């Protein structure tokens, strides 16, 4: 079989990196945006809240409305709107205009990412679909490693508006690449929203998604304000803040890999609860040693590593709860994740406004501890009899990692 599909997957991964950078970059330059447009850090943090809410609520409806559309055209249209959203951030300087830009970017990014994942699975042979999807996810995640710290450096050297202008230009280039490289792909039958609501009515699934909410919400409370935290609390300079953001990204990649390895090696329940306990502990240590420039970077890496180890593990956990509705479960998890990001950014803003920037890490630790407690209770760790029943259920659910391409996580 021809391997021409591979470079198309890599091309989509590069575009996904671009889209991911537009989402994550705002946290990396939050203090600069706040200073430039004349709003508080808490108000600037709501740019992340607005983005996440628009992504969580708007994307499912847009995808349902465009379910039968040609996937290639859908990617082109979404990238055109994506470029327009970035150019709006370049051209307009007001807070309201920037909120509008973030809404446009959220909706267009959500449609593009989900559509690109669908196209990638159809471009690849049946036995390579998992790795094709993983490649796109890796491209999106790489934005944390490269896109955010580079964006911070560029914004510090020039102007943060220019970062969005550059992303917009690259978005237009991406349209040309897709026009040339991606074949037409038919749409699919839309999944009725009532089917998704039916899943949410299952108590086990609702509890599983609640774990996602507190885990990501706790992470977001701290991550949204990490750049001003490092500048104002730890006292790092611009160069070291960029290095810190790069370290966070590298650790997130390693953490995702460790999460897949741990799930295969020790099972998802122990890996998930253990990762979240460590996540909470490292956030507390960041709070305790916030003024130590020598300790903060190692602690940031350990925090990011433990936080992102829960990513593949939690997704695997959710598909075991509804093995016949994998794509729907992952879609619901994505929406809850965005809601949690919005809630975390909003709560973090209140903390910064009414308490202090330094308090974000220990309050975030508390939220993650709630996630760990819910997970431990749902897995039966707090009840020996329930633990035995849960272990039997987990053994019966064991084929999901291969479906997601995580069977080689070691």
SSE order and pairing:
Elements lengths: L3 H25 L1 H8 L3 H25 L5 H21 L3 H29 L5 H29 L2 H22 L11 H8 L2 H21 L2 H9 L3 H29 L1 H21 L4 H29 L4 H29 L4 H20 L5 H13 L3 H4 L7
Helix pairs in contact: 1-5, 1-6, 1-7, 2-3, 3-5, 3-14, 4-5, 4-7, 5-6, 6-7, 6-11, 9-13, 9-14, 9-15, 11-12, 11-13, 12-13, 12-15
Brief summary:
The protein is mostly helical and 410 residues long.
Describe this protein with a few key phrases:
mainly alpha; Growth Hormone, Chain: A; 2 domains; 17 helices; globular; disordered C terminus
Give the class from helix and strand content and strand pairing: mainly alpha
CATH superfamily of the largest domain: MFS general substrate transporter like domains
Number of strands: 0
Number of domain units:
2
Percent of residues in helical segments? over 70%
Low-confidence stretches: 399-410
Compute the gyration radius: what is it?
A: 21 Å
The count of helical stretches stands at 17
């Amino acid at each position: 079989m021809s391997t021409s599909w591979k470079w198309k997957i890599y091309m989509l991964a590069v575009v996904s990196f671009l889209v991911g950078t537009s989402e994550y970059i705002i946290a990396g330059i939050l203090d600069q945006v706040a200073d430039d447009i004349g709003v508080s850090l808490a108000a600037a943090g709501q740019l992340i809240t607005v983005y996440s809410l628009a992504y969580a609520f708007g994307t499912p409806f847009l995808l349902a409305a465009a379910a039968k559309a040609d996937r290639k055209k859908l990617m082109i249209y979404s990238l055109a709107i994506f470029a327009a959203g970035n150019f709006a951030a370049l051209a307009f300087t007001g807070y309201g205009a920037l909120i509008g830009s973030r809404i446009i970017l959220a909706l267009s990014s959500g449609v593009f990412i989900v559509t690109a994942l669908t196209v990638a699975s159809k471009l690849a042979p049946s036995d390579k679909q998992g790795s094709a999807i993983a490649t796109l996810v890796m491209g999106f995640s790489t934005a944390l490693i490269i896109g955010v710290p580079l964006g911070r450096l560029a914004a510090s050297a020039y102007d943060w508006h220019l970062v969005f202008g550059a992303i917009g230009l690259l978005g237009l280039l991406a349209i040309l690449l897709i026009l040339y490289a991606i074949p037409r792909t038919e749409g699919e039958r839309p999944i009725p929203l009532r089917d998704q609501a039916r899943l949410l009515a299952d108590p086990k699934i609702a509890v599983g998604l609640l774990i996602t909410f507190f885990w990501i919400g706790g992470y977001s409370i701290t991550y949204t304000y990490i750049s001003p935290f490092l500048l104002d609390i730890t006292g790092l300079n611009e160069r070291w803040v960029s290095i810190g953001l790069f370290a966070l990204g590298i650790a997130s990649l390693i953490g995702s890999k460790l999460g897949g390895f741990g799930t295969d090696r020790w099972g998802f329940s122990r890996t998930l609860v253990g990762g979240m306990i460590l996540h909470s502990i490292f956030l507390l240590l960041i709070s305790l040693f916030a003024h130590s420039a020598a300790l903060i970077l190692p602690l940031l890496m350990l925090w990011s590593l433990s936080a992102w180890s829960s990513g593949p593990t939690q997704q695997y956990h959710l598909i075991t709860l509804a093995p016949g509705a994998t794509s729907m479960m992952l879609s619901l998890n994505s929406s809850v994740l965005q809601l949690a990001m919005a809630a975390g950014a909003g709560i973090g803003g209140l903390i910064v406004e009414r308490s202090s920037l330094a308090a974000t890490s220990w309050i975030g630790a508390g939220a993650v501890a709630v996630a760990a407690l819910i997970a431990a209770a749902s897995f039966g760790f707090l009840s020996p009899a329930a633990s035995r029943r849960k272990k039997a259920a987990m053994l019966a659910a064991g084929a999901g990692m291969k479906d997601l391409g995580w069977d080689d996580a070691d």
